[in-house]
């Protein structure tokens, strides 16, 4: 589905009859020859064309105007960045129509390449370590754009939504679209009066003039591009503060129909759940929490930073606090601490699923151990479930149910191996050690070994990297096998509700 757009290496052969040309080349200062294009991919093997090389973004300032009736978006994006190499040109990930690009105040040449690349050539090459101000003026209809055969922009009866994983930014702002390049954000959106614009962080101000209202949102902690969201429509917005002091902002589409009550009964518990999760994961890492439920037909939810995206279908069968727990757990595991590469997805999904198991225990509907025993027993050895390796599942299985459930099994196995004291110290210490940064599965193993004082390579290999069901001896050692008497584990009361969220990140393609 994705093709590598790696840089090409050109070699110049100088024949004896071309000495004059060679002398000209030698006359070029050595420094000039060091300027090369930034790679059109950041180097992630799962998605070779995603992200870009040659620069690092520190801040995005997005000033937008959106017309819900026609899905027309106009924007000026200002990116504050720094070059990481001697740079002759660089790429941005973007799909809409660009009218102007400026680099440090000077007009730059630009073109498109591949499925989603905007190629920018500054008037003058940029030495490594140069501070960049990149301004991109653009317009277009996001819902009319596709890349690789899909869209991450969702039209609603009263507006549009940008939310998807592992990509959604291309449809509404130019970016370096990979979790490795995190940045802070200011998102300012002008919409017709009576319509709201919802984004990440805190609402700084609103102002109205001549039938239009501007909403100014700010996320002051580093945020990855796929966790940045925009929702425009007619919402009922609720605000409050958790008992622990976290501001909470929620929004509900005014036409949710029969799902409205269940959505509110679930998402309005955000503050309570944030405080509860803080007991396991440490202080909440952001300036606000909350979620929004637009009137979309998608089936997934997404942990968009501070402002979780929920599909109405998550509440079609009634209140669903388990999915709220899952997405809020990601604020620590996935949002504050983000993956180094997409192969590290277990650190996001395994721990968010394990938070659901802890919530089940909290609600008296089955302990984490009982859920682990049941999941292990429910999948025979020849089940394809065991062929998915949560520690490196491959892009085709990145959001497979095994990444969630087998991933949570690995966490329970770790808990049993190192004991509760060390386990809960790891659970709380990890988001603090790597706060607002990136980390890998290997980093997590090293951290767990450091805290517990135990070698864990064999355990991690068995539960995360072997494409087979852990044998009974290994499973018994991890206390996730049926008892010696052969009695099958009883299905915990919470199991079906948790299993119903297995496709919670099953993005539409």
Structure, described:
Its EC number is 3.4.11.2. GO terms for molecular function: alanyl aminopeptidase activity; metallopeptidase activity; zinc ion binding. It contains 13 helices and 21 strands. The N terminus is likely disordered. The protein is an alpha+beta fold and 509 residues long. Strands 5-4-8-2-1-11-14-13 form an eight-stranded mixed beta sheet, with no helix packed on it. The radius of gyration is 24 Å and the shape is globular.
Chain-wise SSE layout:
Layout: H1 19-27, H2 30-33, E1 55-67, E2 72-83, E3 90-93, E4 97-103, E5 106-107, E6 109-113, E7 117-121, E8 131-140, E9 153-156, E10 159-162, E11 183-192, E12 196-198, E13 202-209, E14 212-223, E15 230-233, E16 235-241, E17 247-253, H3 260-267, H4 270-281, E18 289-293, E19 308-309, H5 321-329, E20 338-339, H6 346-362, H7 368-378, H8 401-418, H9 420-433, E21 438-439, H10 441-452, H11 457-465, H12 472-477, H13 495-499
Parallel strand pairs: 1-11, 17-18, 18-19, 20-21
Antiparallel strand pairs: 1-2, 2-8, 3-7, 4-5, 4-8, 6-7, 9-10, 10-15, 11-14, 12-15, 13-14, 16-17
